[in-house]
Write a structure and sequence with these properties.
The structure holds 5 protein chains of 5 kinds. Chain A is mostly helical. Chain A is built from 23 helices and 7 strands. The chains are: A mainly alpha, B mainly alpha, C mainly alpha, D mainly alpha, E mainly alpha. At the C-D interface, helix 1, helix 2 and helix 3 of C face helix 1, helix 2 and helix 3 of D. Strand 1 of chain B pairs antiparallel with strand 1 of chain D.
Chain lengths: ~625, ~260, ~80, ~110, ~475
């Protein structure tokens, strides 16, 4: 099956899925899952270099082509999507619009695959918009705030997209082609730095908007936070990676080191790349600090996505072999971790109907498997060995230190430490601590929902021990892009990842961890177990475990005494009065609204007199200009 | 302040139009031979070679007698009428349509609910003099449009005069109410008739609104082919139409 | 002739200003009708008898009638 | 000079449209502009010493310069009627506006949606 | 044959005053006859003229049917046909609609400047009549006044053209040597005179009131009439004046785009919101026309066609909703088909892939870049960004908010038409040739004034 046939039939199938789901949404969801499985096998069977025509636009061929990068990104995406599809088979019964969800999820899959396959800028744009459109229509299926979220998501995504489009056609105008590799070739020989930089930044802005890099990151909080719970997993785990892909295309497929060789900025990195790195670093700071503050667990992880998008951007932006591989590997790690975390949250919300950390607690006893999935996912997300998340971060640090970018490296370290803080907050607030009484009948979710989580966790763990299956395609990708193709980083023969300041042997590390774990477990079994005490005596009807704090006094605001309220109060106080970028963007939106009000009030609402005035004035101005 | 702005802008507009005036020939100093109307006056459009004419070769005929002669492409002595109803008859069809559209519009805008007379006691003199004048006025109106191709006037003024008669009836007679069915069907049939004249022209002469009747001697009553007929239909149509409009606005609705 | 035209023009301009600025709508309508009537003279002066007749009957007569009838329908309208 | 008169009349009409608050006045101003434009059009067809374009017994011959331009006159005939049509529709709208908004003064009209 | 396009609706309109009851059927008859006539004379690929009363141009009035006017007439009549399928919608406005149809056809087909003025006035008056439906009198009155001013200015422009060339025929005016200052006078006045109908800012004050005031006006005025008006912009500034005065149009159009979209953003009334969007799209089209090449004009009308189809659906659905529901929240849950077509149409408006708007928007941007115009695409994309904001907001509100009201009866015919048009939009995405071929032919015909002049003036006698 040709690539174009595949995508088009996927789009058509999505509409069929809608009608099937109208009859029975479960059948639709199962069909979706089967199609997903098929896609994964399809993707693994494809050979690189397969191309296929989509049609022509204005004499320009629209083409799809299958490269190592397409394979890598498609495989990661499908892993996330298929697990969510499996998850949805059960989870959808809590949703209002299951049929539309199924349809748009499949449509979005088609769009994403198309983006990764696109050989030229317009094809990329077409599938990009399909993915955005369909995901944008899933977002408002959530609770009330999600409607606004959809609008903000659409506008922010569109602002990046349209800048990209402008850049694409700027490139077309200058180089006469839309083909990405052609453009890359011509850009190297183009003498005009200004236009090249403009094209570069305009193209990158789509990725910036999509992957939630600093100036356009605010939609993540509201969209991820309010989208239907399982879909947040796709949003954060997969859709955001479309942005990373576009960033990778602009930075690596267009050989930015060679294109901008005449504007080096710092240790061989051109100013344009450095600008992106600076944005990435800002995102790490903003994402980390904001994530620490959140009480809503989904918004918390949304901000963590901002920070991790920053890591990816920094890694790719350095164009160092180590950094590039680290960044691309981080795509994989973050996709899996974020997907598992959001699915775990979706399971929690599925059972408890709340996503406020301060209203939850102690679910470890009720939902142990979900807890386990969450635990491993955050270990990966925070970058602790032996999970795979560590490896990518380690590679990025290696690159940063080698390039001598100490400020960026420091920010990256800071983000890493910050991530310990914020991932611990839901852990403590949701799974540990006291179980509120109203959740005493909560059960573990059904296997259909926890199996996908566990699969992803296991994959992540395996890759943490033996990362070479993922590193190999990345290495061939790197060779495609010509980033120091001589340098070999992964060395499966010696079980080593070779960094410049030392090597990493994941198997060894895993064994050490395993030994440590076994010792800890032995110690744990040797000492007597703690005893559980019911602390709910006087306030049974509220069901809130608060009496431990009170000395016989009645408490009027029990939620303030929940230990999870203001979890990091001291730390948060340090940056309480931080400037809010969201407010700035809000002001911008308000400015347009006010402008509209003004235009309406001055030109459209008034009496015929005013019309006559404007008509006369216009004639006069035209006359004055032309006479 | 508003007035000041208005005066400024108005003055600017006047200045602009004065500036534009410089681009056209001064008042009274027009050379008709540059314009198409020279051939309307000479009634020799059919004999002009248009492709040469547009490129500057003006084929103005020499002085010749028109009045009382036969055999011109258009037979009306009044050249304005010949333009209105023959050379640019399509404009006139449009014009009739404008009036028709506005009559329909007035009907739709004002129509709908039950009607009631607008009462104002007419005085005696008005009523008596109306009785005497009415036939004369209507006759005058008919005269105007029947002689449209000979003398100044035509369908529109004629129709208006008839409408004035109806207005007079309204003012003089409290009980009077225009029979809407009659006026509407007159209006509709006359309008259709105009289009049908055009269609007959299309069938006979191969062109819409073609003058399919023979032209007589310039200056006689039955001379200008379809022109008098068309003017008659226009006159009746405009008369009934405007009467309808007057009646429509005049009659008051309740509730 | 020229002086007459100027006179007519002057009258028209005065009538127009009056029509625009009059306090009572009725006055405005009458001024407007006067303007139309004087313009009939201009048309005649410019050798356009057809237009003159039409303007006299339609512009001065019918328009005024329609406006007046409208005005009465609105019971005197809103005085400015 | 006829041009001047008509242009000034156009200016007055526009001025009236801009300053007046009564919708009736707007209609009147529009009518003034119409008349002024008509005068302007006729003036473009005037030939010094020309006669009305009607062949009569006393004026039986065709010659350039003897008649004024008949075409603008024909156009004006149409334009006048079009003006009336507009005015009639405007007048009937005014009647209904007065009924609906209880006034035809822009500042006193009630229930005009934003 | 061509003259029948005008004569038949006119004749039936006259007849329909006598038989009010069958006016809707007559309207349907007129629409279908016109469509048949048009299908019979499919794309003439040359200049075909019909001299009225057999008076050859430039002396008499002539109708011109070339690829440009054919495509415009086809689109206009197709929309009238669609409206005529919905008798509930037409109510007692059958006669007016027939007149409007005749006027729009005449306006497009005529080759005479004054004649186009006459038809424009008919259009204005009937449009005002239609606009006054549902007691929308004040806004209709505003439109009337503005239309009156525009008409006077258009007439003045025509007279200036007449004095400069001695003829009113467009072909003759096009080939005549007009002095530069005279040309400035004429085109300035035409810019304003047409600007009102073409919805150029700030001459478009009437739009929101008229489109937002009832259900019939936006559907017909926002599609057919605006197509006719924008056709005339192309004809006059492209063919007749060879792009003179295009810079002014371009500037005004760019301001129009931004102003329209910005004003749409804050609207709470759905009809008005999309009325403003219609203003902005008119700006896009005019700006595109003002670029003056065959390609840009063709793309302009391609975009206009897509926009008109989308707007037809949007206004049809929105009009139904506004006058059947007090609160629009979540109404599409009850009207899935209407909702789906509405969403598809709005997404086409933005230019999302899978819908027709994508094809036109992308092609326009591409063409503009190849003309080295970097400002207009930026403005267009900014406008689209704003458009995304309100389009998504409306869609989300109409689909996902909690519903409050009882279900109103679904209009079967309207839903069918809306759905068919929405599917047409998808079809155009897949196969843009459906509209693009005609539009490009139109653009070529408009840009090729030599052919036009030759076609009109070389005719000795007007044929059928």
């Amino acid at each position: 099956m040709a690539l174009s046939t595949l995508l088009i039939s996927l789009l058509v199938t999505s509409v069929i899925i809608y009608f099937v789901s109208k009859a029975s949404w479960r059948v639709g969801a199962i069909l979706n899952f089967l199609i997903g499985i098929f896609l994964i096998s399809y993707v693994f069977a494809l050979h690189t270099g397969t191309t296929s025509d989509l049609g022509t636009l204005f004499g320009q061929k629209l083409q799809l082509t299958w490269t190592n990068a397409s394979f890598y990104f498609s495989a990661v995406s499908l892993m996330v999507i298929v697990s969510v599809m499996l998850f949805a088979i059960k989870w959808l019964d809590s949703q209002k619009y299951p049929a539309a969800f199924n349809m748009f999820l499949l449509m979005m899959t088609a769009g994403s695959l198309g983006v990764f396959m696109a050989a030229d800028l317009v094809t990329l744009y077409i599938f990009w918009e399909i993915a955005v459109l369909s995901s944008m229509l899933i977002v408002p299926m959530g609770k009330k705030e999600s409607r606004k979220a959809a609008v903000i998501y659409a506008v922010m995504s569109a602002s990046g997209t349209y800048m990209y489009l402008y850049g694409a056609f700027l490139a077309f105008q200058r180089y006469g082609t839309l083909n990405i590799s052609e453009i890359a070739k011509q850009m190297v020989s183009d003498p005009s730095t200004g236009i090249k930089a403009a094209i570069f930044l305009l193209l990158a802005s789509a990725g910036i908007a999509k992957s939630g890099i600093f100036p356009l990151h605010t939609w993540l909080r509201i969209a991820h936070g309010n989208a239907p719970d399982a879909f947040s997993a796709v949003l954060s785990g997969q859709l955001v990676k479309l942005g990373s892909y576009v960033l990778m295309v602009t930075v690596a497929v267009i050989p930015s080191l060679r294109v901008f060789a005449n504007i080096p900025f710092y240790s061989g990195i051109p100013a344009t790349n450095y600008f992106l790195i600076a944005l990435g670093a800002t995102s790490i700071i903003v994402g980390t600090l904001m994530a620490i503050k959140q009480d809503d667990m989904k918004m918390l992880i949304a901000f963590s996505s901002v920070a991790n998008g920053g890591y990816i951007l920094i890694g790719i932006g350095t164009m160092d072999p180590m950094g590039f591989e680290g960044g691309v590997l981080h795509v994989f790690n973050h996709a899996l971790a974020a997907a598992v975390i959001f699915m775990a949250f979706a399971s929690v919300v599925y059972r408890t109907h709340t996503k406020k950390i301060s209203e939850l607690g102690g679910l470890i006893h009720k939902m142990p498997i979900t807890f386990l999935a969450y635990l491993f996912a955050i270990i990966s997300l925070a970058g602790i060995p032996p999970m795979s998340g560590f490896i990518s971060k380690w590679m990025i640090y290696q690159a940063l230190v080698r390039k001598g970018m100490f400020i960026t490296a420091f920010i990256a370290f800071f983000g890493s430490i910050g991530s310990f803080l914020y991932v611990f907050r839901p852990l403590a607030g949701v799974f540990l601590g006291q179980l509120p009484k109203k959740y005493k009948d909560v059960k573990e979710v059904s296997p259909v929902m926890w199996i996908p989580m566990m699969i992803l966790v296991v994959i992540s763990l395996i890759i943490g021990i033996w990362p070479f299956p993922v590193l190999q395609p990345i290495e061939s990708m790197r060779a495609d892009f010509g980033i120091a193709p001589m340098v070999k980083i992964s060395d499966p023969d010696h079980w080593l990842i070779r960094g410049f300041a030392g090597n990493w042997n994941p198997v060894l590390v895993f064994n050490l961890f395993l030994i440590g774990f076994i010792i800890a477990y032995i110690l744990y079994t040797m000492f007597p177990r703690s005893k559980k005490v019911d602390l709910l005596a006087p306030h049974k009807e509220e069901g809130t475990p608060i009496n431990i704090y009170t000395g016989g006094e009645y408490i009027y605001t029990p939620e303030l005494y929940h230990y999870n309220t203001k979890f990091y109060a001291g730390f948060e106080r340090m940056y309480e009065k931080h400037p809010s970028w969201e407010k700035v963007l809000g002001m911008l939106a308000k400015f347009f609204h006010d402008l509209g009000e003004w235009v309406h009030g001055w030109f459209f609402r008034p009496s015929p007199s005013a019309y006559a005035f404007w008509v006369s004035l216009t004639i006069l101005i035209v006359f004055w200009v032309r006479w | 302040m508003r007035r000041l702005y208005a005066i400024l802008v108005g003055a600017g507009l006047v200045y602009m139009l004065f500036a534009f005036l410089g681009t056209i020939s001064p008042y009274g100093n027009v050379n008709l031979s540059d314009r198409v109307s020279a051939h309307f006056l000479a009634k020799d459009v059919n004999s002009v070679d248009a492709s040469k004419w547009v490129s500057g070769d003006k084929q103005i005929p020499s002085k010749m007698k028109v009045f009382g002669k036969k055999g011109f492409e258009d037979g009306s002595a009044n050249v304005v009428t010949s333009i209105v109803v023959n050379y640019r008859s399509f404009d006139t069809l449009g014009e009739v349509t404008v009036l028709f559209a506005s009559a329909v519009g007035v009907g739709l805008i004002l129509g709908g609910t039950r009607r009631m007379r607008y009462g104002r006691k007419p005085n005696f003199i008005l009523r008596v003099s109306t009785g005497i004048l009415l036939p004369l006025i209507i006759l005058f109106g008919v005269y105007i449009f029947v002689h449209g191709h000979l003398t100044p006037g035509g369908g529109f003024p004629g129709g208006t005069v008839i409408a004035a008669a109806v207005l007079l009836l309204y003012l003089s007679n409290e009980e009077f109410s225009l029979n809407m069915v009659v006026s509407k069907s007159l209006e509709g049939s006359m309008g259709s008739l105009y289009v049908i004249f055009g269609l007959i022209g299309l069938a006979v002469g191969g062109a819409f609104l073609f003058n399919f009747l023979p032209n007589g001697v310039v200056g006689s009553l039955f001379s200008a082919g379809v022109v008098p007929l068309v003017y008659m239909t226009i006159g009746l149509k405009v008369g009934s139409e405007l009467s309808g409009v007057v009646a429509e606005i005049h009659e008051e609705r309740e509730g | 002739m020229s002086a007459l035209i100027w006179l007519a023009g002057g009258i028209m301009i005065v009538a127009a200003v009056f029509a625009v600025e009059a306090k009572k709508i009725l006055d405005a309508v009458i001024a407007m009708s006067a303007l139309s009537l004087v313009s009939v003279f201009l048309f005649i002066a410019m050798r356009a008898p057809d237009v003159a007749i039409t303007e006299a009957s339609v512009g001065a007569g019918l328009v005024t009638a329609v406006l007046l009838v409208t005005l009465f329908r609105m019971k005197g309208g809103d005085d400015k | 000079m006829v041009y001047a008169i008509s242009i000034i009349l156009i200016g007055i009409g526009i001025y009236g449209l801009m300053t007046q608050k009564n919708l009736f006045k707007h209609l009147i101003s529009l009518s003034i502009i119409d008349t002024a434009v008509n005068i302007f059009i006729i003036a473009t067809g005037y030939v010094e010493g020309g006669k009305a374009p009607i062949y009569t017994k006393s004026l039986p011959n065709f010659a350039i310069g003897k008649f004024v331009d008949p075409l603008p006159q024909a156009l004006v005939l149409t334009a006048i009627v079009i003006g009336v049509g507009t005015l009639a529709v405007g007048a009937s709208l005014l009647v209904r506006i007065r009924e609906k908004h209880s006034s035809i003064d822009v500042e006193n009209m009630k229930g005009v949606e934003e | 044959m061509i003259s029948l396009l005008i004569a038949i609706p006119l004749l039936l309109a006259f007849v329909s005053v006598m038989w009010k009851r069958i006016s809707k059927s007559l309207f349907f008859l007129a629409a279908i006859v016109n469509l048949i006539i048009l299908l019979a004379s499919w794309f003439p690929n040359g200049v075909e003229i019909h001299a009225m009363g057999n008076w050859k141009p430039p002396f008499g009035i002539n109708l011109v049917l070339d690829n440009a006017s054919f495509y415009a007439v086809l689109v206009v009549n197709a929309f009238f046909f669609l409206v005529s399928l919905m008798p509930k919608f037409v109510e007692s406005y059958g006669t007016s609609l027939m007149l409007l149809m005749a006027a729009a056809n005449g306006f497009i087909l005529t080759g005479d400047l004054f004649n186009s003025f006459v038809f424009m006035e008919i259009m204005t008056i009937t449009a005002v009549t239609i606009a006054s439906k549902r007691d929308n009198f004040y806004n209709a009155f505003k439109y009337l006044i503005l239309g009156g001013i525009a008409g006077s200015i258009y007439l003045l422009a025509t007279i200036f053209a007449y004095t400069a060339t001695g003829s009113l025929n467009m072909a003759h005016v096009s080939m005549a040597a007009i002095s530069a200052s005279s040309l400035i006078a004429i085109t300035t006045l035409y810019t304003i005179g047409l600007g009102v109908e073409a919805k150029l800012f700030p001459l478009n004050g009437w739009v929101s009131g008229v489109y937002g005031g009832n259900d019939l006006a936006p559907v017909i005025l926002g599609t057919s009439v605006s197509f006719a008006a924008l056709y005339m912009v192309g004809r006059l500034f492209g063919t007749v004046f060879h792009g003179n005065g295009a810079e002014v149009l371009y500037t005004l159009a760019l301001i129009t785009i931004v102003a329209g979209e910005v004003a749409a953003l804050r609207q709470q009334n759905i009809l008005k919101a999309f009325a403003y969007s219609s203003v902005a799209q008119a700006g896009v089209v005019v700006a595109m026309i003002s670029k003056g090449t065959a390609k840009s004009m063709g793309l302009a009308y391609f975009h206009l066609t897509n926009d008109a189809v989308a707007k037809f659906v949007i206004f049809l659905v929105a009009g139904f909703l506004v006058y059947n529901y007090k609160n629009l929240n979540g109404v599409f849950k009850k009207h899935k088909i209407l909702g789906a077509s509405f969403s598809m149409a709005t997404f086409s408006l933005i230019g999302f892939p899978l819908f027709a708007g994508f094809q036109s928007k992308l092609r326009m941007i591409m063409a503009l870049f190849s003309m080295k115009d970097f400002l207009f695409p930026a403005v267009m994309l900014l406008a689209t960004l704003i458009e995304v904001g309100y389009v998504v907001r409306w869609n989300v509100r109409l689909w996902f908010e909690e519903e409050t009201q009882e279900k109103a009866e679904t209009p079967v015919v309207a839903s069918t038409i809306a759905l068919i048009l929405a599917i047409l939009l998808v079809a155009v995405f897949l196969k843009p040739e459906i509209f693009l071929n005609g539009a490009m032919k139109m653009g070529n015909a408009l840009a090729d004034s030599k052919d036009y002049i030759q076609g009109v003036l070389s005719v000795v006698k007007g044929g059928m």
